[in-house]
Amino acid sequence: MMGERAVTREMIADALREAGIRAGESLAVHSSLKSLGFVEGGAEAAICALQDVLTPEGTLMMPTHTYSLPMWGKEPYNKTKSPSLVGKITDVFWRMPDVLRSDHPSHSVAAWGKRAEEFTKDTLPYPPIGLNSAWHRFYSAGGRILMLGTNQGTNTSLHLCEVLADVPYLNVVFTPGRDYEVAHRINERGEVKEFILRQVPGCSRGFRKCEPYLRESNVLKDVIVVNAQSQLLDISSLVEVMVRKLKEDPGFILCEIPDCGICQRRRRII
Ligand SMILES: [Zn+2]
């Protein structure tokens, strides 16, 4: 990026409109701040640009996952304190005014705008990305997904496709011999509560395998946002095409990495 001029909020907003983002829509964003180049005002400017384009009539949603499982050495999830572990933009977003954050101790989301409350409220006790989760509500609302400088490797909605396709491995979790994991969170009274996680979202290292298929099916559109190579998808089309594919080939998005315990055990029961 040496010698390139700084990227401004206005430049990002113009590029988002050029890429097809519209006022009033529900947009879920997975992001890489670095991919935009040097942004004047940092993550906050990028978020403001998204809000400028969507307007308060639209809704902006982002994952703010914390993976708060004791077995991974994580602190209990505190929705007013725990940093998001999925990128700088997401970690700045949930702290901004008028942004709501869900209670989920492993896969929380944050949202701003017209449907923010609908997507984030009362997401416990549902599975993190299953029926009635924030992502399922976002799907029911007919939203679109922007992978801003990122790719299908970070597309949380592919886990929703696994659930809706009812793949046979949904109950195979990280711990061998169990069908659930334990997460922990701090509730409104400051007490640490255990939370039984079912339909645990597994490994996503195989997710990029679906990119050629999603392009051929006209579900994935490659777009550029300033310097960021990005992808835009309609979640209804994504679910339709991926559920069909996963019913034919349930192992399609499991990874091939030899030391990946969960994918190996998941593949064995197909
Ligand atoms: Zn894997």
What structural class do the secondary elements suggest? alpha+beta
Output the helix-strand order.
HEHEHEEHHEHEEHEEHH
Count of helices? 9
**Weakly predicted, low-confidence segments:** none
* Number of separate structural domains: 1
Described by strand count, sense and barrel closure, the largest sheet is: 7 strands, mixed
Please tell me about this protein's structure.
Helix content is 29%, strand content 18%. With 270 residues, it is an alpha+beta fold. It has one domain. It is globular. Strands 3-4-2-1-5-9-8 form a seven-stranded mixed sheet, sandwiched between helices. The chain has a two-stranded antiparallel ribbon with strand order 6-7. It is built from nine helices and nine strands. Bound molecules: zinc ion. The site of zinc ion (ZN) has 8 residues, from helix 9. Zinc ion binds next to helix 9.
Give the secondary structure arrangement, pairings included.
Layout: H1 9-18, E1 26-31, H2 42-54, E2 59-63, H3 88-93, E3 100-101, E4 109-113, H4 116-120, H5 134-140, E5 144-148, H6 157-164, E6 181-186, E7 192-197, H7 211-216, E8 220-225, E9 228-234, H8 235-248, H9 261-268
Parallel strand pairs: 1-2, 1-5
Antiparallel strand pairs: 2-4, 3-4, 5-9, 6-7, 8-9
Helix pairs in contact: 1-2, 6-8
Residues 203, 205-206, 255, 257, 260, 262-263 line the site of zinc ion.
